[in-house]
Amino acid sequence: MSEQAPAKPAGGRARGARGPESRLATVRRARRINRELAELYPYAHPELDFENPFQLLVATVLSAQTTDLRVNQTTPRLFEKYPAPEDLAAADPEELEQLIRPTGFFRAKARSLLGLSAALRDRFGGEVPGRLEDLVTLPGVGRKTANVVLGNAFGVPGLTVDTHFGRLARRFGWTASEDPEKVEQDVMAIFPKSEWTMVSHRLIFHGRRMCHARRPACGVCPIAPLCPSYGEGETDPEKAKKLLKYEMGGAPGQRLKPPPGFPGKAAPPLEVE
């Protein structure tokens, strides 16, 4: 008889729990999951290479609909040619498009980069502002991008609700919403503000490496006893182990310049024909 995955429980209950989960139980389970992920990924960090707020802002805009790896392979040449907002604002659009072409949607991204750079030059003295209400006025910059920049370049706590974050927040029962802003509000209510940025990194790391969209590696996941969605993916440990990605699967990470303490290999540079 083949083993059947347990039905997904209602109300975000942990695996094996009975009855609906109270709000207090949900919060306690969520915070325990966060602690478990902190032990699993003590090196969790933003996976875009950057040296200053402007570079992080540009890289985050480029990261839409592509991998951080492809962005990291593209930005060295971009930042060498356009090191400051004033330089990028004056860029030839066609030259800029060719530089960022590997990231996809390069025409729309080029327009955003030219627009935000001109806005930084004209309205913010060539500096990236450190307030969300200012950042979201820049072309191509929404709440997700603004929170990435605030959390990682300015130390201002925020949640980065990308596709990985939203998927795991729903699988863990922290939210039922598909709307990024509602997900953000639901999760902010669970964790203290000081944890928001690192919660983002840990969920995104886990989503990229283990809790994948189509075939999560449930059989090797240390969060399984706490997860109401256990069984959506591969539960056989040996088969699940083969699904692990990046450093968890013995492959390079996404950064060409990983931070100290990263256990994986640096990613290779982009091969230019």
* Biggest sheet features: none
Strand residue content: under 5%
Spans of 5+ residues with little confidence (pLDDT < 50)? 1-11
Report the order of strands and helices. Answer: HHHHHHHHHHHH
Mean of pLDDT: 93
Number of H/I helices: 12
Class inferred from helices and paired strands: mainly alpha
Summarize the structure.
With 273 residues, this protein is mostly helical. It has helices at residues 23-40, 53-62, 68-81, 85-89, 93-100, 106-123, 132-135, 143-153, 163-171, 180-188, 196-209, 237-241.
Task: Report on this structure.
- The protein is mostly helical.
- Helices cover 46% and strands 0% of the residues.
- It is built from twelve helices and no strands.
- The longest helix has 18 residues.
- The N and C termini lie far apart (54 Å).
List its traits.
mainly alpha; 273 residues; 46% helix
